Amino acid sequence: MNKLFLLISLSICFSLPVSGKPAHTPSNYFQITISASSIRQGQTLTVFVNSANRLKRLELTFLDQKLSMDHVWHKDHAHLFRTFIGIPANTKPGSYKIVARGTDINRQKLSIYTLVRVKDAGFKIQQIRLSKKKTKLLDQKILQEEGAILKSQFLKKDRRVYFKSPFGSPVAGRVSSSFGLRRKYNGDAISTYHKGLDIANKTGTPIYATNGGQVTLAVHWKSHGKTILINHGHGIITIYIHMDKLLVKTGDWVKKGQIIGRLGSTGIANGPHLHFGVSVNNVRVNPAQWIKNRVRLFF
Ligand SMILES: [Zn+2]
Q1: Which of 220, 251, 286, 296 is most buried, judging by how many CB atoms fall within 10 Å of its CB?
Q2: How far is the CA of 252 from the centre of ligand 1 (A)?
């Protein structure tokens, strides 16, 4: 009786494919895993590809964009790769395909896909009144110049990784403006969406590096004010804007929790606050998910 039961269980284990995953033999698998099957606009999705064989090439496609994947060390999986997908805040709700394509060392072409459902995040409209002096800083030419430099930074992808643990909070204080608000300045047509999280506190409050990385920009700009960018590797960059003091320079390496500056209201800011942003492979995402440790980092 016991022998028969054992035989049945063994045959079930080896013959049925796991639901949602392709049937595979243990010696030749190519799997895709995502951190959530349904996600809101502006959030970050983590994608893992796990392959039985060493890969010569691997690429991910999402929303007609191609994303490279980075190898991550895992004691049980020699060929494990990861990438982070930022869901743009203006993505139309619906189901989207994520396709992984690779070529292994035996020149075998591999392909697999999964679906993710993007849900409406319900972003609200916010009216902002600025003083005359601050309104001058809304100058489109200045904004475009600074924006172009930021954009060139966000496009950089460092294939190394400088974070080993979840991201910490950049500053103490209260959230004065959340991510994704559609903004209208002084009632006119200039309208953008808020690409970060505003945290208000007293001028001079210390600002911390949310994780390890390299300071790729530390500048004093007219519109953004005193600004710092930290590249954490694997497509993740954090942004710190409107600071009163910068305590690091471009090129410096920082550790998680290191003081990098002081909170202020330089540039287009109504009062002392930190505008904190996260760029994921050149998409500005909701930073709250990162600093609350709700982004899956590990397999
Ligand atoms: Zn802001």
Answers
A1: 286
A2: 25
Task: Give the residue range(s) of CATH 2.60.40.1930 domains in the chain.
Answer: 2-119
DSSP-based helix, strand, coil % in the chain, nearest 5: 15, 45, 45
Residue type, 173: G
Q: What are phi and psi of 12, to 5 degrees?
A: -65, -45
Whether 181 and 126 have beta carbons less than 8 Å apart is answered as: yes
Integer angstrom CA distances of residue 279 from 15, 43, 85, 88, 231: 43, 11, 10, 11, 9
Distance 242 CA to ligand 1 centre (A): 9
Q: Which residue has the tokens 């035989």?
A: 7
The 10s digit of each residue's pLDDT in 81-114 is 999 999 999 999 999 999 999 999 999 999 999 9
Give tens-digit pLDDT for 237-284.
Answer: 999 999 999 999 999 999 999 999 999 999 988 899 999 999 999 999
One-letter amino acid of 129: R
Ligand 1 centroid to Cα of residue 231, in Å, is 19
Q: Does domain 125-291 have CATH number 2.70.70.10?
A: yes
pTM over 0.85: yes
Integer Cα distance of 154 and 166 in angstroms: 21
CATH class entry, domain 2-119: mainly beta
* Nearest to 260, CA basis, from 287, 228, 282: 228
Ligand 1 center–CA 192 separation, angstroms: 11
Separation of 273 CA from ligand 1 center, angstroms?
8
